Amino acid sequence: MDRSKAILALLAVNMLVVLYIGYTINSAIRSHDNKTGSELRGLQQQVQLLESQIVNGISRELTAQADKVERLDYTLTGADLAQKKAKVGLQVALKEVSSSAVIAVSVRRDGQVQPLEAVLEHQGGMQYGTELELSLEHNYELTVWERSGAGQKQLNAETRRLPLLDDVYRNRVAKASTGAGISNDRLNADFSFLLKDLEIPGTELEKALLRIRKGGAVYDEIDVTRHAAPRSGRYAEIEDHYKVARASGQIDNSVTLEQFARDNSFDPDRHVSTAKAGETSPYAQYSLFYTIEFAKDYPELKLTRDSAGQLSFEWVLRFKDGYEHLN
Fold it and tell me: Where are the domains of the chain?
C-alpha cells in the first residue's frame, strides 16, 4: 500500500471512530437526563469539529493526489514601467507527464473571457518554462495543460495565481501604521511601514511627504524624504529614546533618527531583515517622524493641546514610476 492509500485508509478509520463517538454521545444524551445541557453541547461541538477536520483532511489529500503540478514560479525578467508591461519568466515543475505530450499554459486576467495560451518549453527532467509579456495592471490565473493525440487534460487541480498587480503595486508598501501624540507644547506624528525592493529600476522611493489637514482640506505639505531611510534591526533599541527626545523638545525635526543614533554612539546595522531564519525578505523597515511645535509652527492657528486635535495627517509615498501610496 503506497503512502496516499495509507493516508486515505487512516482518514476513513478516523471517520468511523467519529461516527461511533457521535452515536455514543447521542445515546448518552437520551439516557442520562442528569447531564447538563452545556456539557452535552460541548461534546457535540467537539465531535462536529473533529468531523470537519477529517473531511477537510480527506479533501486536501484527494486534491494533492489530483494535482500534477509540483511547483509554479515566476520571475520578472524585464519591465516597461511607462507602458506598465513586464516580461515574465514562468517555471513549472511537474510530478508526472505522459511521454511525447505537449505542456501548455493558459493565462487569464481578472474578468477576461478568452485567455492567453502558450506552449511551455521542456527544460530537462520534469521542468518546463516560457517567457510571457503581461500587463502589470492585472492579477492572473494560470492553468497548466497536457495535450496529446488523445486530447488534453488539466494538470493543476486548483487554479494557480500570478499576482502581478499585487506584487508590483498593492503590496509594495506593507504593514503601514501611523500614530500621533499631543503634549502641552507640541504634536508628534509617526509613520512606520515595510517597503518592498522589487529590484526593478524606476520603482525606488522618490519622495516622502506629510500632508497636514485641517477641516478636511490640505493645510500644509512637508517634504520628509531626508528622513526616509531603511532602519536597522537594532534601531528598535534606540527608536523609543528618539521618540521621547522629540516629544520632550530635546531635539527638533532637523535631527534624523540616524543622526540621533550617531550622536548617542549607536552603531546601526545596514538594514532591517524581516525574514525568518534561513529566509531572505524583499522588505525593509522604515519609520518617519514629524513634530509640530505650538510656539513656532503655524502661529496663525494659535495651537494648544486642545485645539491641535483639529489637525490630521496624511502620509504620502511617491515612487519614481509615478505610483503613490497614501496612508
Answer: 3-66, 69-162, 171-326
Q: How far apart are the C-alpha atoms of 275 and 273, rounded to whole Å?
A: 6
Q: How far apart are CA 300 and CA 184, in angstroms?
A: 18
Taking every pair of Cα atoms in the chain, the longest distance, rounded to a whole number of angstroms, is: 83
* pLDDT < 50 stretches in the chain: 1, 62-63, 269-274, 277-278
Note every long-range contact of 274-282, with CB atoms under 8 Å and residues 24 or more positions apart, other chains counting.
274/194, 282/196, 282/197, 282/198, 282/199
151: part of which helix (H) or strand (E)? Answer: strand 151-154
Q: What are the residues whose beta carbons fall under 8 Å from the beta carbon of 170, sequence distance 6 or more?
A: none
CATH topology of domain 69-162: Immunoglobulin-like (2.60.40)
59: amino acid identity, one letter: S
Interval 48-66: pLDDT, tens: 676 666 655 555 554 455 5
- Cβ neighbours around 246 below 10 Å, total: 22
Hey, how many other C-beta atoms are within 10 angstroms of the C-beta on 233? Answer: 14
Q: What amino acid occupies position 83?
A: Q
Claim: this prediction has a pTM higher than 0.85 = no
pLDDT, position 33: 55
pLDDT of the residue at 251: 75
Residue whose C-alpha cell is 495565481: 161
* Residue 296 CA neighbour count, 13 Å, CB half: 5
Q: Cβ(316)–Cβ(211) under 8 Å?
A: yes
Single-letter code of the amino acid located at 115: P
Instruction: Compute the chain's Rg from CA coordinates.
Output: 29
Query: In the chain, where does DSSP find H-type helix?
Result: 3-31, 37-66, 164-165, 236-247, 257-263
Residue 277 has a pLDDT of 45
3-state DSSP percent of the chain in helix, strand and coil, to 5: 30, 35, 35
3-state secondary structure labels for all residues of 280-301 = CCCEEEEEEEEEEECCCCCHHH
